[in-house]
Amino acid sequence: MHTDTRTPISQIGKFGLIERISGAFTHKESATLQGVGADGAAMLYQEPVTVSAQALFLEGVHFDLSYTPLQHLGYKVVVRALGQLMAMNAQPRHLLITAGLSKRFFVEDVDRLFGGVEAACNEYQVEVAGLDVESSYTGLTISVTAVGEAESAALTIRRGGQPTDLLCITGNLGAAYMGLQLLEREKALFNSAPKTRPQLQGKEYILQRHLRPTLRKELFTILQRESLIPTSMCFLVHGLAQGVLAMANASGCGAKIYVEKIPIASKTFEMAQELNFDALVCALNGGDDYEFLIGMPLAVYETVAKELPVDIIGHLCDASQGSLLVTPEGNSLPLSAPGWGE
After folding, report:
1. 213 cis-preceded (ω within 30 degrees of 0)
2. Which parts of the chain fold into alpha helices (H)?
3. Which among 93, 102, 195, 257 is least buried, having the fewest CB atoms inside 10 angstroms?
C-alpha cells in the first residue's frame, strides 16, 4: 500500500513555510539589507535606502464583498502596504497597483475601488506610479506594492532587537477582529432570513477598525522629533502574538508580555461578551489590528513613557527564557500564534 510521505503545510504553519521558502533566496547582493520574511524589503543602492512592501488581497480569502464596500477595500489594501513599509521607519513615496477583475464588475465598481485608493493616497501623501488591470476568472484580486525610502542610520529592521528592549504598542487590539465577527454574524442571519435588518447600531467603532483602519502616522513624527530610533518593529496584521514571536525570533531573543498591559477597548470587550468570545484571545490572535509593535531601548524608557503615543506591554529577554505571556497572578504561559505550526 502506498504511503504518502509528503508534509502537510499545516504541520509547519504559514510562517514556517515562508521561512522554508526564504531559505532558498540567500542574500548574495550586498545592497540587500532586509529581504523576504519580514514586513518589507530594504535595498541600499545609495542613500537613502530604497524600501518596499507589498499586500495582496484575494476575494473570499481576505475580504467578502457582501459586506465590504469597494471604496473601503481600496483604502484598506493601500493602508496595509503602507503600514508594512512604515514598520521599517521608512517614508512612503509611491504605489504600484495591479487588479484582477471578473466579468461581474462594471466601470462604476472600479471607480469605487480606486476612489478608496485615491483617498488613502491623499491621506498618506503617496502617488500611484504604476497601474495594471487584468481579467480574472476568480472574482476580485488587488495587489499593492508600496515603495519609499529611509536613511540607513534610521532604518528599523525586525532582527535589531536586544534583551531588555521595551515592547510597545500604538493602539488597542482585537477590535478589528470583533468587527469582522459582527459582520459574519449579520451575514449569516441575513442569509437565513433575508428580511432581517442588520443590527449594527452602537458598533461603529469595531466596524471602522475592520473596514477602514488608519495608521498611527503621528508616531513617526514624534520619533523624528525626539531623535528616537526603534531597535525593531512589526506591523500587526496577524495578531499581537505573531508579531511578538516574529520580532523575538528574528532578533534571537525571547519575550515577556504582561496581560494587564495589553490595551483592549471597551467596545471590543462588549462585542466579545455578546458573541461569547475571549477578548484577550482576540487581541492576541485575531488579526487585522494594523497597529505597530515597537522595540525601544530600555535606556529611553522615560522619553518613551512621556512622549510616545504607545502602551508599554512587555520586553524582550534572553532567548533561553522563551516567549511568554505573564498573567496578573504572575503565572507564565508559552506564547503561541496560528501559523507557527503548533
Report:
1. no
2. 9-22, 70-86, 107-124, 175-192, 204-211, 218-225, 240-250, 266-275, 279-285, 301-307
3. 195
Beta carbons within 10 angstroms of residue 226's beta carbon: 14
Beta-sheet strand order (sheet of 91-101): 32-34, 41-43, 49-58, 141-150, 91-101, 127-135
Are the C-beta atoms of 85 and 148 separated by less than 8 Å?
yes
* Residue 29's pLDDT band (cuts 50, 70, 90): very low
Q: Angle at CA 317, nearest 5°, toward 310 and 238? A: 55
Tens of pLDDT along 303-327?
A: 999 999 999 999 999 999 999 999 9
What residues does 234 pair with on adjacent strands? 293
Chain segment 248-293, per-residue pLDDT in tens = 999 999 999 999 999 999 999 999 999 999 999 999 999 999 999 9
SS3 track for 111-171? HHHHHHHHHHHHHHCCEEEEEEEEECCCCCEEEEEEEEEECCCCCCCHHHCCCCCEEEECC
Q: What is the length of the chain?
A: 342
Cα angle for residues 198, 189, 67 (degrees, 5° grid): 55
Cβ partners under 8 Å of residue 315, min gap 6: 164, 165, 166, 167, 255, 256, 298
Q: Rounded distance, CA 119 to CA 141, Å? A: 19
